[in-house]
Amino acid sequence: MPQSLSLQQLPFSQACENNKQPIFTLLAKWFVNRQHVLEIGSGTGQHSVYFAENLAHARWQPSDQQHYLPTLQARLDLQTSPNLQQAISLDVTQPWPLLLSDVDAIFSANTLHIMSKPMVEAFFTGVGSVLVNSGSLVVYGPFNYQGQFTSDSNQQFNLWLQHNNPDSGIRDIEWICQLAQQQGLTLQEDITMPANNRLLHFTK
């Protein structure tokens, strides 16, 4: 993808635009002392750009699967935040890059319901391998509680997800917490967010 693309020509997520400020309000508190943030599944790069600009004390590392990197990096190239890093290729089911050895915070938005269950398990195994002790993991997205959807719209969204990919789906919070605990992560806060989403804050 040519780096000369304009901002208007790049993929755009209205959901990212809507939720970046509510998410940032909490990241500003949770990441106040964090120095190296890994974002998993950076997608369009809108979160990367906004959070790096507003968390100037932290090095922000975007990542995604290889085929998303050209348009992701094209957006990053249009920004000037000195703490915003070049995007790296990260497939949660493959060995994670060694350069992630000093990560003290990880952020991921709207990824776990897209992943298959084995990929979610690999996500947490990888997080456990690269996140330093006392580090933070923050995950944004929809979750079920005791096997129940939190809204009719989430139930409809889940049907849409599984129609497009039978391996995807909104995950149970209890299972997510179990996977986290296996990696030494403890859920500290579970915050209600707009559009029937949650923001989960774990610490290691």
Automatic annotation (TrEMBL):
It comes from the Bacteria. Gene3D superfamilies: Vaccinia Virus protein VP39. This is Methylase.
